[in-house]
Please model this.
Amino acid sequence: MNNPVHTENYAHFVQQGEGAPVLLIHGLAASLFDWTELLPALSLAGYAGYALDLLGHGESYKPTRLEEYHIENVFNHFCAWVEGLALASPLILVGHSLGGYLAMAYTLRWPERVRALVLVNPFYRVEQLPPLLRVRYKGPLINTTLIQRTPEWLVRMVIDLTSLSIRNGYILPPSVRRQTALDYKRAHPGIFNIPSTIRDLMPLVHHITAPTLVIWGRRDLTLAPASFTQLALTLPQAQTATLEAGHVPHQSHAAEFNQHVLRFLRSLTC
Model:
């Protein structure tokens, strides 16, 4: 089999199962491997799961120019992928962090195409970030040299130390930590310009009327956990679930996370 041509529209993805379509959207510096545990669970429950690599991530197209790493380009790339799937049924969108932003933006643009949302530690405004990161993302990324030169072993060490520093069973499995480091290194460094280009979705989310599960880790150190409560209170049809986890509950607490998601999906047919 020939390798695919990585044109500007190319989105690498995997599909598993048959049934109602569930689209899985990862966060910044991640990949479709984020959903290794959820995809087979969806398939067993009678859903068709689709997971992609976003623009600049994984095996998807990676623009060379830094200015191309803008949220609008990421959104347009995502929308082109969805259109290419040519799915007849309304979509269930599952988005983690930046993926949550894209899921909400898609729903705001085409509400009639979305059946339901699952928002996992969703990123929807810069104010959710810690003060130092907030200052950093107030302006565009200028130089990616440091990011490019960071060795994979150092990335892995930081991930290991971060995991070990959080209590209550947050420690990520070794395979997940390895994949996280790999995803960081194989992504184009320009992706770190994307957060500085997002718009604040908070004034718009009250227009999202699709049933929504907002699920998050109470020990998130990347985005303020209180912001998830605020979002859920603003969404007209939101349910909530929390886990004793950090920023990636779908990886650190996969079994418990999957139970919450599948319970929510079953409720859509009641």
In short: The chain has one domain: 13-142+189-267. The mean pLDDT is 87. Strands lie at 13-16, 20-25, 47-52, 91-96, 114-120, 212-217, 238-243. Residues 13-142+189-267 form a domain with the Rossmann fold fold (CATH 3.40.50.1820).
